[in-house]
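Progress report, Aim 2. The chain analyzed during this reporting quarter is listed below.
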Amino acid sequence: MRREALICLVLTVIILAVYWQVTRNDFILYDDNVYITDNPHVQSGFTGENIGWALTTTRSGNWHPLTWFSHMLDYQLFGLNPRGHHLTNLFLHIANSILLFLTLRWATFATWPSALVAALFAIHPLHVESVAWVAERKDVLSTFFWLLTMLAYIRYAKRPKRTTYLLVVLLFVLGLTAKPMLVTLPFVLLLLDYWPLNRFQLRGNYGSVVDGRAEPSPEKLSPIRLIAEKLPLFMLSGIVSAVAFWAQANAGAMSGLEVIPAKWRMANALVSYVTYIGKLFWPENLAVFYPHPQDNLPIWQVVLAGLLLLILSIAIVRLAARYKYGIVGWLWYLGTLVPVIGLVQVGEQAMADRYTYIPFIGLYLIIAWGLADLGKESRRLRTLLTVSATSILMVLALCTWQQAKLWRNTTNLFEHTLEVTTNNYVAHYTLGNALALKGNLAGAIYHYKEALRIKPNYAEVHNNLGNALATQGNLAEAVEHYKKSLLIMPDQGNTHRNLGVALDRQGKHEEAIYHYKEALRINPQDSQSHNNIGVTLAEQGKLEEAIVHFSQAVRINPNFTEAQRNLENGLRLLGKSTSKNPVVSSQKK
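Predicted structure tokens for the chain:
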């Protein structure tokens, strides 16, 4: 126990040394705004309305109420200070690394291979995205429950009890409500039945237990009984998969086959499987967003990737009887990536570093137990492998420290992304947003135009480019981009409102009012559009109609001080003046 405690302590110290810098990082203007900084439900805390919202919302294209609850709790504790939010992610990653070590150690009795797997998980550069990005709370939180479920399942497999099985189900449900990625966990539990738990009614034993003890094997069952045992878990996975599919479709996050045909998806999936393996061993040019290649993948890459996966699979199957961990690790990797490999295309990315957080554990198993088996040949070789593994871990720690440094702020992160990728319209768009917030309108406009050069039908970019141009005073060009945005996505309330403001500033008041009303049709709770209509009507001398809209704005948002002031001014003018051109002071937005 002293050795295991020391390993847990070392893992904690290494992770803190590598990742502590993230506590100085800002929120990122890419999903962090959706989850925290611009989310009124998260910021208003655990009210009955917000709990109901978290349980039913499909915002961000996901159904993950437990993740929303964790963000609400963080906001109540830390407000908009990013340090606390980053600390939560960091501590969850530490807990996950320790849980992974303890779970494998308990299942296999092999201390050092288990420690190596946990160390690789703790400090591999591809996992920086899951830890350093507050919006990826769902990754670290769901993995925490994934590992707790595995730990409870191992206990159940060794000493079957109904209460332990119910604990497995409860932990699994909690994990599913943090991120639907856990739908593949029942499949992984079946793999654990094969190795290291040795529950399959087949010949063999635990496999390669290197430095551990042995204890009586769990009861052996037929594969059919093992599957039947997990039917409740598979049913839960099916239900949550359907909910996740609905959530993604409802949020418009899912691309149809007419946008990305099946053959493009299959080609990208094959290449991504191999690319991830390449980044496991050579983690360079990592980016927060990799654009989908669509039909631009060379056929030789697709064929070569398919052949490589086939050859590796055949070799691993042929060696399965001798090296059980090989087929378990390989199927773990292939299987857990299925929900995010792009066969069901969600978002516009080809792949993502964060998707490896769970799947890479399978490859780490192959590496760790493979090295342990190889080290049995001689003491000298074992020493050499130990020194080599330690050196590689040190290099990975340095790479991870450097990668985490890139997440200091939005500008830093997306400038790096543009350096290591090509035709990255999302990076240009996000960098443009960050520069616009800093007041660098020229820089923002440049990046917006670069994003449109790559993807001309990007509605959000047209809108934000219009905002930047309008701020510069270039109203004519701003109006053109707002209109282009609405041609692509007609039901954008914010764009209608922005276009209304630009038209108002050009003196086209009737057109402006039309677009304000369109914004209200799309979002009847848009207090700003009510206020803008009121100001325009007041400027035209239609004070009574203006007061109606000011009243609506205040009713929707009682804290809207501008609308409150306009309402008071309007009522005073209506009572004291018959002027047809009363002045109402307001800034239209």
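DSSP finds 28 helices and no strands in the chain. The chain has two domains: 2-408, 431-446+456-576. These observations will guide the mutagenesis work planned for the next reporting period.
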